């Protein structure tokens, strides 16, 4: 015979509900315990400032200095009697030192022989518009200004290639770039006024050295007169790719 239990007396009937309620209560208490914060108590220090009434200081009585009265004004001068001078006074006649128009003045002016030389003014004419461009050594046989310009530019390029030396420090540091060089060929055919602008002082120095080593040229002519001709050229410094 099987024993049957009363459903109302079954203890496991609401066990799931009790488990959920207990778990919720435990989690709530754990959360509150973790969130609980305590702060150290600080003793309150109350500072009191005693305000004292202004002290009444006794001002010492100083002695009053009596200044003497000002001196009396000077008395009026006595009446002066004017006495007539009976003696005659001779007037001194001052002669004028100015010369009249009738008087002839002779001036002797000594002039030393001085030779005055005319200073020649340095005239600058751009390379593009000059009548006769400077002649680079080796371009004397070129005819016409156009051929001389082409020969001049070619000789400049050949000179740069011949004298080109890459600075060792710049090569080790991998420095490269373009240096713009400006210079002038003066009225005597010499290189003058070299100016450089580039990415590195070492490259600028080398470009200036190359241009300074240019040979003496026949100066440019403008209207039959030797003039200064400015010129500019770029110098490329480029390392060979490995």
TrEMBL record:
The main location is: membrane
Q: Which UniProt keywords apply?
A: Cell inner membrane, Cell membrane, Membrane, Protein transport, Transmembrane, Transmembrane helix, Transport
- Mode of membrane association: Single-pass membrane protein
Do you know which Pfam families this protein is assigned to? TonB_C (PF03544)
Query: Among its keywords, does the record have DNA damage?
Result: no
Provide the TonB C-terminal domain boundaries.
151-242
Query: What top-level branch of life does the organism fall under?
Result: Bacteria
Subcellular localization(s) per the UniProt record: Cell inner membrane
What Gene3D superfamilies does the annotation carry? Answer: 3.30.1150.10
Q: Which PROSITE patterns match?
A: TONB_CTD (PS52015)
For this UniProt entry, which segments traverse the membrane? 16-34
> Which InterPro entries has this protein been placed in?
TonB-dependent_transducer (IPR051045), TonB/TolA_C (IPR006260), TonB_C (IPR037682)
What's this protein's family per the entry?
Belongs to the TonB family.
Protein name from the UniProt record: Energy transducer TonB
Organism per entry: Maribacter arenosus
């Amino acid at each position: 015979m099987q024993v049957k239990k009363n459903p109302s007396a079954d203890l496991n009937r609401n066990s799931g509900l009790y488990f959920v309620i207990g778990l919720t209560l435990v989690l709530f208490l754990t959360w509150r315990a973790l969130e609980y914060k305590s702060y150290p108590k600080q003793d309150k220090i109350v500072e009191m400032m005693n305000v004292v009434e202004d002290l009444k200081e006794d001002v010492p009585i100083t002695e009053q200095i009596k200044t003497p009265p000002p001196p009396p004004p000077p008395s009026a001068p006595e009446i002066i009697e004017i006495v007539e001078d009976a003696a005659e006074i001779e007037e001194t006649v001052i002669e004028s030192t100015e010369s009249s128009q009738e008087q002839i003045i002779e001036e002797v002016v000594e002039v030393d022989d001085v030779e005055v030389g005319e200073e020649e003014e340095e005239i600058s004419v751009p390379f593009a518009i000059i009548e006769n461009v400077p002649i680079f050594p080796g371009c004397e046989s070129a005819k016409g200004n156009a051929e001389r310009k082409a020969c001049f530019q070619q000789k400049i390029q050949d000179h740069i290639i011949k004298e080109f030396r890459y600075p060792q420090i710049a090569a080790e540091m991998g420095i490269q770039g373009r240096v713009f060089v400006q210079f002038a060929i003066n009225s005597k055919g010499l290189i003058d006024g070299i100016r450089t602008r580039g990415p590195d002082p070492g490259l600028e120095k080398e470009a200036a050295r190359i241009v300074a080593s240019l040979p003496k040229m026949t100066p440019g002519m403008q209207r039959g007169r030797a003039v200064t001709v400015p010129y500019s050229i770029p110098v490329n410094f480029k390392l060979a790719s490995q």
